[in-house]
Amino acid sequence: MTSPIRNTIRELRAARSMTQQGLADLIHVTRQTVIAIEGDKYSPSLEVAFRIARVFDVPLERIFQYVPPRPRGK
Amino acid sequence: MSRLTFQERMLWAQLAAILAVGVYYVHFLAHAGPGHHYFHAVILAVLLVFGSISFAARHRTGAVVEDERDRSIAAIGTRWSNIILWVGLVLIMVLYWDHGSIHSAHLVIGLIFHLLLLAGIARIVRELVAYRINA
């Protein structure tokens, strides 16, 4: 199941040549959680989201975007 | 398929321990009746060994081994386990009080024991599934 929250973490991380483990250590989560967030399989808490924004030094909305799910039958 | 995480390895260990206790119970104690068994000692030993290994492993690695996603998955597993426990306990009470079909305390304890095993297995399997789905 994918989350309605999309993110640009993978691109931001690649631009800084940062590994998933490196990011995980900086935001105090496991590498598997970073993998799940990047794959839109898990939406992080606000606290973790802000930690990510601080690591990349960009506003939160540049990292996370809400994509509303399509209404059924349309 | 990604590597197993620390939490998943712990869950597989728990599942193996629960199944070992269940198999031991079925093979050696199911028909033994009440008496002086070492079953309690076996359960306590398994719990102690598992707890020690888990504690040591958590503190040996410097990396984060549990985070909010692990806690969220644990909550999902616990919810399933609670549902099974509640339904099972209500069924046992209905059998005991309404129909009077349970006459022996030994049978009640056996049913509760199996219910605990089932709830434990359901929790672990649900958490393992959640880890794989969200891997």
Commentary on this structure:
The complex is a heterodimer of chains A (74) and B (135). Chain A contains five helices and two strands, in the order E-H-H-H-H-H-E. Helix content of chain A is 51%, strand content 8%. In chain A, strands 1-2 form a two-stranded antiparallel sheet. With 74 residues, chain A is mainly alpha-helical. Chain A has one domain (5-59): 434 Repressor (Amino-terminal Domain) (Orthogonal Bundle), CATH 1.10.260. Chain B has one domain (6-133). Chain B contains four helices and no strands. Chain B has helices at residues 6-29, 39-60, 68-98, 105-133. In chain B, 11% of the residues are buried. At the A-B interface, helix 2 and helix 3 of A face helix 3 of B.
Helices and strands in order:
The complex is a heterodimer of chains A (74) and B (135).
Chain A: E1 5-7, H1 9-15, H2 20-27, H3 31-38, H4 46-56, H5 60-63, E2 64-66
Antiparallel strand pairs in A: 1-2
Helix pairs in contact in A: 2-3
Chain B: H1 6-29, H2 39-60, H3 68-98, H4 105-133
Helix pairs in contact in B: 1-2, 1-4, 3-4
